[in-house]
Amino acid sequence: MSYGQDTETRLSDAPTDSISSLQFDSSGRKLLCAAWDSKLRIYDAQAGILECDFKSQAPLLDALYEDDNHAWAGGLARKVTRYNIERNIEDNIGTHEEAISCMVRSQEKGCVISGSWDQEITLWDPRTRSRIVSRPQNERVYSIDTVGNQLVVGTAQRRILIWDLRNLDICEQKRDSNLKYQTRVIKCFPNGIGFVMGSIEGRVAVEYFDVDAEVQRKRYAFKCHRQKNEDIEEIYPVNALAFHQKYQTFASGGSDGFVSTWDGFNKKRLAIYRRYPTSISALAFSPNGDQLAIGSSFLDEIDVQGDRYIPEPQLFVRQMLDAEIKPKSLST
Amino acid sequence: MSETEKKEDDWFGQKENIQPRRKGQSSDYLARLAKQNDPEFQARVKKEQDEWENRVRYEAQENPMIWHEYFTWANQNVFDSYQLKILQHKALNGIIRSENSLERFGKNEKVFELFTRAVDEAKNWQEIMSFVRSKKFFVNMAKFWTIWAGRHEIEEGVREADEILTEGEKYLAAKKEELAELRKWRSNMDIRIALGRSRQRASDLESDNSERQRNRSTRPARKFGTMIKRDDDPQGDRPGGVKSNAKRTISIFKDKTEPTTVAGLEGDWNRQKVPPNIKIKGKENKTKAEKWNKGGLKDIEAHVPKASKLIIPIDDESDDSDDGKITKGSSKSTKGQGQLKEIKGKKLDQFWSFDEEKEKENGKQKFMYRKNEINMGLKEVSFEELRAFKYSRSIEKAAAKEKALENIRTPVQRKLDEDEMLKRGQFSPDAEAHDFSPVKLQFAESNLDELGCGLIPKTPEIEARDRKLSRISEEASVDLELEKLPDAEEKLREPVVKKSKKKLAFKIFCDDQ
């Protein structure tokens, strides 16, 4: 089923360059946005206006909320920076040798984890504002996510590393990606049974942590974000994934400009939204799942020929209906 | 590392260890090889390799020879032979696929060197040679034909070698030196054949003989004593000679219209790229031509060789379901229950261009992202990495531009600066690094008067007579200028006078010093 734009708000003062990441605060009222224009912005998601912004030295590749008053960000400046939103103070916590590509907060450990193109992940302690430990990944880190004590790291050359945050001395599992092409994004199921990953070539794979044969048999991959154009299938990268905390369903966004919602357990597509102006570069559900933030911005993923118009980056907040995100089995 | 292993490592690099040198490895290479585990060396190589990877991505379009430079660098610093092999393949593809490559690199020695290395190590050298010839690369170089013929000769295919040399002579007819070189090589080959050092394969000869017998029975008898022309009638019944064998022909490369020859000279390749250098020596060649033989060769106009054996086709995503329809993965990795085991998926096809070509041939899929740029170097990169590199380049360029702009002073700015300095009495030409310093060093007494128009760094010592003359000439010039304004109003005259006076005053001031 296709859904229009009747339930969404476009935020004003959107970033001037590609949107890297989006995250709601715990109340779902504020939206944190990191962008390639080197600015970290905080929006009032209800009113759709910009509340404040912080200027960084270089483009930001990821950002997250530590709590409602503190945000962390990293990017091409190679610095992990902590922002005190109320006091408008920024604090450099540490550095990586290369750009920081992704960041995530572990609820279990209460730490912030950063992944970098220097082939390392680093755990940071927000209380002492210092490095806890770094671990080599043998390849450039492209995406990370955590649930419970599991940390999933997706690297270049299609490697997936699964770490147990309680014991970082050894890597728990090393896998080759189930997908044929580069891993672009990884997100864990909120219930902690597995993770989904999107590839550069229009596919999403569902994987499980449990190595038991029965469980592993359930893993699968499916095609998405592809368009038929006169018998030619146009294949777009999957740039963003976001999980609904309550229903364990997820949304995917691709360079085709579409957002779809999926029921991973029942192998069904729940909804597909209207086509956004350009690539979907970031997605985020609010904690209670009633809102979905959608960042639409060109990622320079394809050569633009001639004077083709590139739409400006735009931010939308969509009020979610149950029909769009609730699994059909629960609905009935 | 155990003691024994350490000793072995030490011994490996010792000059007394002649084994590696016997294998043709130079001392330099061995020294580098010994250093490969050194963290400093690794860090340096990694940094340099990243730089090369970025350069290849952004400069290869304008300067495809950067591929050659990268490969040369990799040869000295990368010890992974598999990676080198891939890079060699990509470099060759990168150069040959570039714009106007035939005109630019068709005779380039460096590219030819790269090409010969690829051929040396390839088991499918015939395919590569045939492909390159069809694209008219290197065909005007005698070396190309001799190397090709040489490979056939080594593998006991003198007839194929002969045919190739004949073909080469046609191409080099207009190039005397190259032709001479080719003919010299050919005569040497003839000597080798005469001495029995090179010969045709026994199996070919046998089949030739049997075919000859068959032909004799069907063909009308030839007149006794008729001359057999070697070039005109290669199929002719030459006593003691060898004949072509249609079964052995690399007919998969041929066009229907062209005649069959032994060495695979006929035909054209529809592909734009060099065939992947896939059948590396020492590896079993499992690519069979069964498929072609079954259907016969009649309907096949052009052939794309089978994909590399390096591709491991364990496809979890082989079910090409429709958009949104979810497909089930295989359970191949779930053996080893109870213990954590690495789950192996499908290996990435390193010969991406080849793969892409096949997909293009199918014409069913279009990749809506920078696939080539992402897979161009040895390492794949993400969109963000590509963008980050562009960003850092733009920052560097902007900084360099700013720096350059700081040093550039327009004439007006310079004049203002100098006036300002003069006012403050700080003007010190020796301390200035701008354009005036060379003038100070160069001026001579003879052109002293000319310096009146600018700032004089330091008045040189001159004779009193000259000084006097100089002053007189200045005064005269002032007078002349005043005379040129006979009826002008005072307003107009005043600035000119003032300017002239100032000039004179300055001159006198300099003279008095």
From TrEMBL, chain A:
WD repeats: from-to residues: 93-134, 238-263
Gene3D superfamilies for this protein: YVTN repeat-like/Quinoprotein amine dehydrogenase
Keywords associated with the record: Repeat, WD repeat
Protein's recorded name: Uncharacterized protein
PROSITE patterns referenced in this protein's UniProt entry, alphabetically: WD_REPEATS_2 (PS50082)
Domain of life according to the entry: Eukaryota
Coiled-coil spans in chain: none
SMART domains associated with the record: WD40 (SM00320)
From TrEMBL, chain B:
Residue ranges of the region described as Disordered: 1-27, 198-246, 313-340
InterPro entries for the chain: Mad3/Bub1_I (IPR013212)
Bias-annotated ranges (Basic and acidic residues): 1-13, 201-214
Lineage, broadest ranks: Eukaryota, Metazoa, Chordata, Tunicata, Appendicularia
Biased segments, Low complexity type: 327-339
Pfam families: Mad3_BUB1_I (PF08311)
Source organism: Oikopleura dioica
This protein's name: Oidioi.mRNA.OKI2018_I69.PAR.g13102.t1.cds
Domain BUB1 N-terminal: 48-168
Gene3D superfamilies, A to Z: 1.25.40.430
